[in-house]
Design brief:
The structure is a single chain. The chain is α/β, with parallel strands linked by helices and 333 residues long. It has two domains: 229 residues, P-loop containing nucleotide triphosphate hydrolases (Rossmann fold, 3-Layer(aba) Sandwich); 103 residues, Helicase, Ruva Protein, domain 3, CATH 1.10.8. Helices cover 43% and strands 16% of the residues. A five-stranded parallel sheet has the order 2-5-8-1-9. Strands 3-4 form a two-stranded antiparallel ribbon. It has a two-stranded antiparallel sheet with strand order 6-7. Strand 3 and strand 4 form a beta hairpin. The chain is globular, with a radius of gyration of 21 Å.
Amino acid sequence: MSINAAADVQGDMTPERFSELALAIEKELGRVMVGQREVIRLVLMAMIAGGHVLLEGVPGLGKTVLVRSLGGVLHLEFARVQFTPDLMPADITGTHIVTEDERGRRRFEFQAGPLFTNLLLADEINRATPKTQSALLEAMQERQVTVGDRTRPLPDPFFVLATQNPIELEGTYPLPEAQLDRFFFKILVQFPNAADLAEIARRTTGTDEAELHPVASGAELAQMALLAREVPIAEHVLERGVATVLATHPDTPTAPVEVKRYVRWGSSPRGLQTLVLGARIRALLDGRFNVALEDLAAVAPAALRHRIFLNFEADAAGFTTDQVVAAVLQATG
């Protein structure tokens, strides 16, 4: 199906408007982020899908700046939590405090935590203990928080964009597998090249400071998400996605040698959901209203790298999950 033939698939949000908004968001973010175009594109894709993002990279690469800038560009309420080893779950979700009314009568009142926002930056999430990390589990999956005897819904939309330093750095705690699976994408933020590094210095050491302007709303983001789910996917493309996820499991006959040797546990069904939805969004961003095989391959690393768990032999050999994904794509291609 051509992009023009799909012009009225989802109300006022046409494929043309979808591309226009996406390009405007990326252009505005590019005013504060030097390079990192692929990172910006993947973060935007995840937010259109309504998913959460885990950004991994060494300190100083602009991860926090990107997330903070998203709040301004998308006109969303923004909150930041700096994760530290002494952070407690109540510091995030909120707690009950004792208050007095005008008559001096005391009562308990719920004081909402920073979790009650549209866009939550969980900065250096792997520096907090697993107890505090787990406070995000219910919020990320059900978009609600249970404190005491009440369950409170979170604002709509709600996104968690978490940053973490590479796990080999001291003073970090690995994220639980169940929480990793709740992230739509895990995106690796690479160190900039020489040209980008020089441009960063020019922008950040002078007197000019970029001023961001909102170019889209939460409602428009929701319309983009609905349109993306309307993009058709052919049966053979879906079957390729199924085969890709199955091949990440070492007990599957179609698994490549690298998976059988180095993988302890493969992707969950959420990995397939992410592959398909991410491929649909990528097709729209590329000006197509149908999913191609290359769309699946393009989003596979970000969709699967945090859902594949390696064994000790892989650690000893220096084998990474990205290498596993590459072997799987080659075996199923």
